[in-house]
Structures are given as structure tokens and as C-alpha cells.
Design brief:
The protein is an alpha/beta fold. It is 32% helix and 23% strand. The protein has eleven helices and 13 strands. Strand 1 (5-15) and strand 2 (23-28) form a beta hairpin.
Length: 305
């Protein structure tokens, strides 16, 4: 298992909102959904990507000198840098020589043992706070074997494990993960099937079936519900969340996650565009009103993140 390799794009230490206690979040590359508000658009593709922010570029030409595909160019007359993404092989050589960090490589191959060794550095904090490791993405089970290897190694080490999942995964993989996962942070993005497909590009029914499968297997879950202004900030959606939660035997509580425009700048860096373009964070009083509306329809605790 230690030699099982996969693609990750971040290891975030000292996280406080991705499961109980102090946690290290391992972000895996790849996702079958395309949520129009995605705040991790760099997770969509399973392979590495180059992020470029022109405002950081000092026009030194170092990247152009090492690029084997001539994807990085310097227009000496205009003193401008040009990045031809369609020609880029994503080898990362340009990143290694970029002094100001205008270029960065998103995604790297790591072995499961390397990841767990990195996660394990903060074991004293986990023990004192009840924390541990959380897998996120993207969709962690897009790399199913790698995710299972990470969970198994964490379990061997005695670490508490959480997985944030969209539920868009093979049911047999989820059931294997249930044996190794303390809490599933299960995303519920929309309860209307037509809107769910419109907003995420994927069907709702398999996701709900997988949630029921996990619940019947005794898996402990937390429903994670992003709320996006003008999309799913509707009372009928909140009633749908409550009705679904009522039918679950092992759901601890509901997390409500107000929209954050974090994905806009990250998408720009990798040459993509997030469809939902609102740059504003909803006011806290609006988020509190959403939470209160949901609380009217459920007996479960509702936590506003």
C-alpha cells in the first residue's frame, strides 16, 4: 500500500473545518462533476496543470529558455511574456526557474507512504484535539485505489479519518472506504434532480443511492451543503435536505457552507472559467438566515461554516 501512487495538489495542515479537531487535509486530483461554482477548479483534471499569474511576471525570460515545447515565449520588442497553454506539456521546468512564482505546478505524483509520513508529522496535535487526516478533492474516490491505500495506512497508524466526497463514486469503493473511514463529509449540492444536473453536470440519483448505501452499512456521515445565491438558496431545497437527513440513521449533523468566490482566481490561473461569476461573499446575516430556515425543518444540528 505504501507504494500505491496518485496525484495530489495540496496537503493542508492545521485545518479546523474538515472534520473534528486539528486536521491535515490531503487534496486529490480528479473529479467527475463540474459544479458551476467550484472553488477548487484545479482539481478537475487528474493530471498536473500549470498555473500562471501575469501580474507576478517580471519578464525575465527564464521560463522561455527552458521550455522544451516553446510554450513559454518572450516578445522582446514589446517586453511581454506569452504562455501558449495548448502547446504546454506540463513538465514543470518553467516553474523551477521562475523567480517570482508567477508559474506554479498544480498536481504531483506521490506514493501513499510519502503522504502518510507527511500527515503523521502532526500526530501530537491530532491526539490533543481529536483530529486526524481528511481526504478531499476534487473527488477523492476518482482515484479510488489511491484513496483506499491512504485510508488503510492512516488506520494502521491509528489516525482518525474523514473523507469529503460528492458521492459520485462506485458504490463498492465507498463500501470499502466505510471500513476505514470514521466520518464521511457527504456533499449535498442540490435536491432537485434537474437542477442538480444543471449545476453539477451529474445525476442526483446515484449520489443519493450511495448515501443510503453508506447509511445502511452503518457509516457515520455529516451532510455538507454549499449554498449558492440564486442557485440553491431556496426553501424547497432546504426542506429537501431536511427530508433526506430524516431518513438517515447515522447522520450527525448538517454543515451549511455559504458560497465563497475562491475558485474565480484559481480558475483564471489555469486558463479556465468558473461559470458562476459572482465575486461577492454572502453577508453573514444572509448566511444566518439560510441556516435558520433549514433549522425550521430538521431536528439535526445545523452548523454554519
Amino acid at each position: 500500500m505504501r507504494n500505491q501512487s496518485g496525484q495530489i495538489f495540496n496537503i493542508q495542515r492545521f485545518s479546523l473545518h474538515d472534520g473534528p479537531g486539528i486536521r491535515t487535509v490531503v487534496f486529490l486530483k480528479g473529479c467527475p462533476l463540474r459544479c458551476i461554482w467550484c472553488h477548487n477548479p484545479e482539481s478537475h483534471e487528474s493530471g498536473p496543470e500549470i498555473s500562471y499569474y501575469g501580474e507576478k511576471c517580471i519578464r525575465c525570460g527564464a521560463c522561455a529558455a527552458v521550455c522544451p515545447r516553446k510554450a513559454q515565449l518572450m516578445d522582446r520588442e514589446k517586453g511581454e511574456h506569452v504562455y501558449l497553454r495548448e502547446s504546454c506539456g506540463r513538465c514543470g521546468r518553467c516553474v523551477e526557474v521562475c523567480p517570482p512564482g508567477a508559474l506554479s505546478l498544480i498536481g504531483r505524483t506521490m506514493e501513499a507512504g510519502e503522504v502518510i509520513d507527511a500527515v503523521g508529522r502532526d500526530e501530537p496535535f491530532y491526539r490533543n484535539s481529536g483530529g486526524g487526516m481528511t481526504l478531499s478533492g476534487g473527488e477523492p474516490f476518482f482515484q479510488g485505489e489511491f484513496a483506499l491505500a491512504l485510508l488503510a495506512l492512516a488506520r494502521e497508524r491509528g489516525l482518525h479519518t474523514c473523507v469529503e466526497t460528492s458521492g459520485a463514486a462506485a458504490p463498492e469503493t465507498l463500501l470499502e472506504a466505510a471500513k476505514l473511514t470514521d466520518i464521511f463529509l457527504y456533499d449535498l449540492k442540490e435536491t432537485d434532480p434537474a437542477r442538480h444536473r444543471e449545476f453539477t453536470g451529474g445525476g442526483l440519483e446515484p449520489i443519493l443511492q450511495n448515501l443510503q448505501t453508506l447509511d445502511r452499512a452503518g457509516a457515520r456521515t455529516v451532510l455538507r451543503c454549499p449554498v449558492i445565491p440564486g442557485c440553491n438558496d431556496r426553501e424547497d431545497h432546504f426542506r429537501g435536505i431536511a427530508a433526506l437527513a430524516k431518513g438517515l440513521k447515522n447522520c450527525d449533523h448538517i454543515d451549511m457552507e455559504p458560497y465563497h468566490p475562491l475558485g474565480l482566481s484559481k480558475a483564471a490561473g489555469i486558463g479556465k472559467q468558473v461559470q458562476f461569476q459572482d465575486p461577492a461573499i454572502p453577508p453573514r446575516e444572509q448566511a444566518e438566515a439560510w441556516a435558520e430556515t433549514l433549522r425550521k425543518h430538521t431536528a439535526l444540528p445545523v452548523v454554519l461554516l
